[in-house]
Structures are given as C-alpha cells and as structure tokens.
Amino acid sequence: MKKLSARRRHPLAALVVLLFALAVTGGLYAAFAPADKAQADDTAQSLAIKEGKKLYAVGCASCHGTGGQGSSDGPSLVGVGAAAVDFQVGTGRMPAQQPGAQVPRKTPIYNQAQIDQLAAYVASLGAGPAVPGKDQYSPDGADVGKGGELFRTNCAQCHNFTGKGGALTDGKFAPTLEGVDPKHIYEAMQTGPQNMPSFGDGTLSSENKKDIVAYLDAVNGDDTASPGGLDLGGLGPVSEGLFGYIFGLGALVAVAIWVAARTTKAKKS
C-alpha cells in the first residue's frame, strides 16, 4: 500500500493519467465517429480514377499509350487536364472514328458519369485545366456587349461574326458554335482543341470567357431572330456588302435596260 501511494504521488502520475485518458477518448472517437468528409471525397475520387483507367485502357490506350504518354497515332495526355477530356469526349470527337485533317463532332458514346471517370484518370496523370463549374460558363449576368467585342477580336476570323463556322486550310475548318453547350465553349477556350489556340486566364479571364459565352447565346439562341431580316449566314459585312453590290447593282442595271427599251419603243411608235 505504501508503494502504491508513493506512485500516486509521483510528479508524472497526473501527466500519465491525462495521456491515457486522451488516448482512450481518441480511440473511441475514431471507432464510432462518422467518416470524415474529406476522406470520403478522396475515396470517391480514387474510385473514379480506378474506373476511368479501365475505360481508358479499352477506348483510348491504343492511340494515346497505356500511360497517356502518346504515340504516333495520338498526342500525349499528360497535363491536358480534366477539361480537355470533358470537351473531347463530351462532344463525341473522341474516341475518333478515323484519322483525318480534323475530327468532327458526333454523338458521344460515353455517358456523363463515364466521361467524369475518364477525366479523373487523365487529370491524375498531370495537372491541367479543371472542368468549369456552372457559375463560370452560365451566361446569366454576363456582359453580352463586351463578349461580342472579345469574340470579334479573338474568334471571328475563324468562326465568323456570329459563330457559324468557316473553312480553314488543308481540309480543316472552324466548326459552327450554334447549338454547342456553353460548358463546351468555355472548355474549348481553356484547352485549345485541334486547330484552335488556347486562351488561358492570362489571355482571357474567366469573366471574359463568360461574356463570350453570353454573346454566342444571344446571337445563336433558340429564340433569336435577326433584327435586320435575312442574315445571309451571319458571315459579316463582306458577304453582306457583296450581296448588296451584286443583286442591288444588278437590279438597277435591269431597271435601266427596261426603261431604255420602253423609251425606244415609245419613240418608234
């Protein structure tokens, strides 16, 4: 008894009891507390990467390499980011049906959940642009006028003034932007697919990109009608001026000939 009392009075006894109590409390909490949200998110992300790797091995590895390193049939995917995958696969451009000057848009063969898994796997290969959130590409609250100015400065030379598309060199083309999902338009500016240059946030800020999306929605929306009547394909002032020159001047020449013929006939009579 005297020995036990002496141990209780030891200067470190209180510290030992405190550490023991903390260890027991922590163990009980770890055993019975709900899983941490961050840990759950990490688990979900790991599962998405795992499933995406399986999809990649079946549909992408033959061209882009087993580790995304690229090959003679396809570029490297290291560092392209999730946004590039979401755009290319979400628009049906990838997997490509056949090689060519440019891969056209087609019906996607993967659903959105599978696209997200592929994007997660490719993003794990190297850091790159992430898939934008709805608040980034939604046209709500954006400046349509500023978007039109930015589009005419940076995009119209290929896609024409209202995004109807146009021909490029060597069989390539700038696709129409009519009916394209706003998210995919934003991602295209982020990643620069195929012949298009990329417009990072240092070139076009996220607000600038949103303004451009709003402009395209305004000129190509379902309820949009040309305020000037026939829009002539929306190709801009050159085509409209040429139309006016050929048909307007041609109509004037025809009227002049008709008036001259009527005048000559009247004099003969």
UniProtKB/TrEMBL annotation:
SUPFAM superfamilies (alphabetical): Cytochrome c (SSF46626)
Keywords on record: Cell membrane, Electron transport, Heme, Iron, Membrane, Metal-binding, Repeat, Respiratory chain, Signal, Translocase, Transmembrane, Transmembrane helix, Transport
InterPro entries: bc1_cytC-su (IPR009152), Cyt_c-like_dom (IPR009056), Cyt_c-like_dom_sf (IPR036909), Cytochrome_c_Oxidase_Subunit (IPR050597)
Known EC number: 7.1.1.8
Changes after translation: Binds 2 heme c groups covalently per subunit.
Location of the protein in the cell: Cell membrane
Catalyzed reactions: a quinol + 2 Fe(III)-[cytochrome c](out) = a quinone + 2 Fe(II)-[cytochrome c](out) + 2 H(+)(out)
Signal sequence residues: 1-30
Transmembrane regions listed in the UniProt entry: 242-261
Domain of life, source organism: Bacteria
Positions annotated to bind heme c 2: C155, C158, H159
Record's protein name: Cytochrome bc1 complex cytochrome c subunit
